[in-house]
Amino acid sequence: FASADEFFGRSEEEYLSWLEGNNREQLGFILLDLIRLSEKRKVVCDAHFTPEQTKALTEPERALFLIKEPKNLIDDYCGRPDHEGFTRFINSASDPAAAKRRCNAVLERLNCAVYDSIKRSGCFYIERDASSTVEHTLKTAEEHFGLT
């Protein structure tokens, strides 16, 4: 994409289809990396897996889902220092507010069903909200994986 306007200016359907295609394409590479890396050590992976995919790959107790209600995800995402590149990109659009609205709408559509399926799955999850802290999330994850 030549610009933020081109990237965020697509229809919701085009943008959603592109994200879903990227997720499918990346899954194979992620799995190959996980297999290779886990041959010699324990591995922690931050990826977009569904409960069904996770259960097909490993025992559910070896997984942890970090979830957030899929509304206004871009505000939180753009507020993170590790996402400065994306923040600069979305703010370079001729109408950053419209780009953020489009992005939020697409991400909500993409994540709503997965969010609900995680909550119903029986898999362990941590739901983040405005009061969540990195320290508490890390402590909960360490306890879940028996690292404390």
Task: Give a quick summary of the entry.
The chain has 148 residues and is mainly alpha-helical. Helix content is 59%, strand content 5%.
Largest sheet: 2 strands, parallel
Q: Level of helix content? A: 55-70%
Spatial sequence of strands, sheet with the most strands: 1-2
User: Which stretches are poorly predicted, pLDDT < 50 over at least 5 residues?
Assistant: none
**Radius of gyration, in angstroms, nearest whole number:** 17 Å
Determine the number of helices (DSSP H or I, runs of at least 4 residues).
Answer: 7
Termini separation: 45 Å
Summed over residues and divided by their number, the pLDDT gives a mean of: 92
Shape: globular
Question: What can you tell me about this protein's structure?
Answer:
The protein has 148 residues and is mainly alpha-helical. It has one domain. Helix content is 59%, strand content 5%. It contains seven helices and two strands; from the N terminus they run H-H-H-E-H-H-H-E-H. Helix 2 packs across helix 6. The model has no long low-confidence stretch (mean pLDDT 92).
Task: List strands and helices in order, with pairings.
Layout: H1 4-8, H2 12-37, H3 51-57, E1 65-68, H4 73-78, H5 84-91, H6 96-120, E2 125-128, H7 134-144
Parallel strand pairs: 1-2
